[in-house]
Amino acid sequence: MGLDALFKQFTLDHEFRLEPSTIKTYENAIKQLLEYTEKSLDVITISDIRSWLGHLKEIGYKLSTISVKLSGVKTFFSYCLEEGITLTNPAEKVPFPHIGEKLPRYLTLDQLNRLRQYLDGRLQERAIVEILYATGVRISELCAMKKEDIDWSERIIHIPKGKRKKGRIVLFTWESAEHLKVYLESRTDNLPFLFLGGKWKNRPIYRQQVSEWFAKCSKRLGFKVTPHTLRHTFAAHCAQKGMPLDYIQVLLGHESPEDTHYYAKLYNQARKEMYDDFM
Description:
Helix content is 58%, strand content 5%. It has 279 residues and is mainly alpha-helical. The protein has two domains: 3-82, DNA polymerase, domain 1 (Orthogonal Bundle); 109-278, hpI Integrase, Chain A (Orthogonal Bundle). Strand 4 (196-197) and strand 5 (203-204) form a beta hairpin. Helix 2 packs across helix 4. It is elongated and about 65 Å long. This is Tyrosine-type recombinase/integrase. Residues 102-276 form the Tyr recombinase domain.
C-alpha cells in the first residue's frame, strides 16, 4: 500500500476518535520523520526516531511541539503494526520529552464570586458562567448547546457531539438552573439555540465572541478568566469537595492519557490546598 493510500485509510479509521486537525498534525509528523531519515516505514528504527527528535530540538522546536509529533508517530506506527504494514512499532519505547508542566490555573472561590458580582444583571453572560462552572464543558460544547438538550427534571444536559464526536451527559446545579431559567424567560425568540450570538442575536453564540467577552472581564477584574479556566475551576472545586478523580474525568469527557495526567496534577494540587486551609 502506498503512503498516500495508507494515510487515507488511517484517516478513515480514526475520524470518529480524532479531530481532523489532529490527524493532519500526525500525518505531517510522519512525513517529516520519513523525509529526515530517508527511509521507508518498515525499516525505521528506534534510533532513527530518537535522532529525529534530537534534530527537532536542535533546530528550535519547543518540547511541547516535539511531544505532539512523537504522539502522532506512536499512534501511526501502532496502527501500522495492527494492520500488518510493519512488523514492529519502533516508537513504542521512545519516551516523551520531559516538559516542566504548569499546573492548570483555576479560580479561587473569592475570584469566582467577584466574577458573579461583576455580571449582576447581565443575564446571558451570568448564565454562561454558571453553566461552564457547573458542568465543566468545553467552550465548543457550550456553543453547540440547544434548548432540547436540557433535561430540567433530572438536571442533565446532553452533549451529543463533544470532542472526538463522542456524546455524553453532564449535570448542572440548582443555582445554575435558576440563572439559566431567568435568562431563557427573558428571551422573546423561538430559536433553538441555548445561547445567542451575532450582531442581531439570531444565531448560536460562537467561540470568538465568548473569548472576547471573557478578555474584557479579565481586564476589568484584574485576573485572567477564560472558558477553560472555568473548566479547570469545576474540576478543582469538585476535587476539594471530595469527588474522586475518575468521576471528575467522566464528567469532563476525558479519555486520553495526556488528559488524565494533566488533571491528576490539578486534582492533587487542589486537594493539597484544601488540606493547607484546614491545617
